[in-house]
Fold this sequence. Notes:
Blueprint: H1 7-23, E1 28-30, H2 44-47, H3 54-66, E2 69-71, E3 75-79, E4 82-90, E5 96-101, E6 107-110, E7 114-117, E8 130-132, E9 137-140, H4 149-157, E10 160-167, H5 174-189, E11 192-197, E12 213-215, E13 221-223, H6 238-247
Parallel strand pairs: 1-2, 9-10, 10-11
Antiparallel strand pairs: 2-4, 3-4, 4-5, 6-7, 8-9, 11-12, 12-13
Helix pairs in contact: 1-3
Amino acid sequence: MAVTAVKSENLEHAVTLINKAATNGAQLIILPECFNSPYDTTCFPKYAESIPGPTSDILAQTANDNNVYIIGGSIPEIDNGEVYNTCPVFSPSGKLLTKHRKMHLVDINVPGKIRFREADSLSPGCDFTTFDTPYCKVGIGVCYDLRFPELAHIYGEMGCKFLVYPGAFNMTTGPSHMEPLLRARAVDNEVYVALVSGARNETASYVAWGHSTVVSPWGDVLATTEHLETIVYCDIDPDFVDKVRTHLPILSQKRTDMYSTVVKRK
Ligand SMILES: NC(=O)CCC(=O)C(=O)O
């Protein structure tokens, strides 16, 4: 999705795209990171709103109108004076099922290329976020969360078969890192993984890599795109997760007598 600086335009456009995807048969629809605001630390406090709030009300109504799950990308959320990068999730009846506040905030400095520090205006979330569908359990991260294998591993342990990351990789890291990270999380945990990015806008302060992609539990790229706006469609088969786990039972072969990934705070 191409995102502009005008929140109302972004919301209207998101609804149009969701309606189109639903008409074409999508049952679970994912928006990109920061779909109602530019991805810019100076914009986050200005665009921030509560959840529930105006943007989430529109997504709830759109989920209900189309009878689809919506993973609402992310929006700057304000709560108690703190601003979060938050992904709200809606059921087909328009209920706000859960929300994920980005747990790992971007703090990168590649000299001469990119310096970006979300903590300049955001606070990190401190919750694991999953929800159940009739198809499978789904785990949510937001973009930079993808870099941390522990989160994906914990979601796998919690029973998720599909991990979803609304995202916005950049022109420096995206070309080299995004697809390998998606494939690694998928193969490590034998789950489907999707990252949904905003379209590239060369005039934005942060230029997104784009390339929204879905990877299978076997590590294959099932669906992807370039950097312009489009809807990427993909069939997810939760039974295939079980098949891969039967053929390669690595999850039960971990040497948990020697190491483990421990949840310290829920
Ligand atoms: N929006 C983000 O979290 C950016 C992540 C990113 O570009 C990376 O390299 O990681």
